[in-house]
Amino acid sequence: MRVRNGATKAILILIGYALAVLAGIAVEPMARAGWGVVASSAIILVMVLVLTRMFRGENESDAPRTWWRVTADAPAGFVLSAWFFVQTIGSLSVLAEQPPLAVWASALVSLVIAAAYLHCAIRLTANRRRAAPARL
Asked: Less CB within 10 Å around the terminal CB: N or C of the chain?
């Protein structure tokens, strides 16, 4: 299944984040402090992995993407990388107030996702430059 429509993409992302929040709320009272955040972080990681395989750009084929490609265009990769890096900093900013396991799990997930988006954006930019005709 490939998703190209922007509104559908937004709805799927909102559903994924809602599932992550609900999982955190459900797990936290049943486990030690911080495990709700760990559960939410795991769901966000799975959500990113699944949705990057489903989402496609307007001019992108339905063929499976290469392992490193998580966006259709480099600008989207740079923006999403920055977003998840800011989430990493936000996670680490509550280190004194939250259990360390929760903070480090959340920060690590956000940092890994940010690195994946950045890697994709850099490779897409390099590929585009190589494919561009030489200027005289």
From this structure: C
The two three-digit tokens of residue 136, written as one number? 């005289």
Taking the complete model, does pTM exceed 0.90, yes or no?
no
For residue 68, what are its two tokens?
A: 């490193």
In whole angstroms, give the CA distance from residue 79 to residue 54.
Answer: 19
Predicted confidence band at 115 (pLDDT cuts at 50, 70, 90)? very high
Candidates 86, 64, 82; CA nearest to 74 is: 82
Say whether 97 sits in a helix, a strand or coil. Answer: coil
109/88 Cα distance (integer angstroms): 8
Tokens representing 109? Answer: 């997930």
CA–CA gap between residue 33 and residue 18 (Å, rounded): 20
Query: Residue length, the chain?
Result: 136
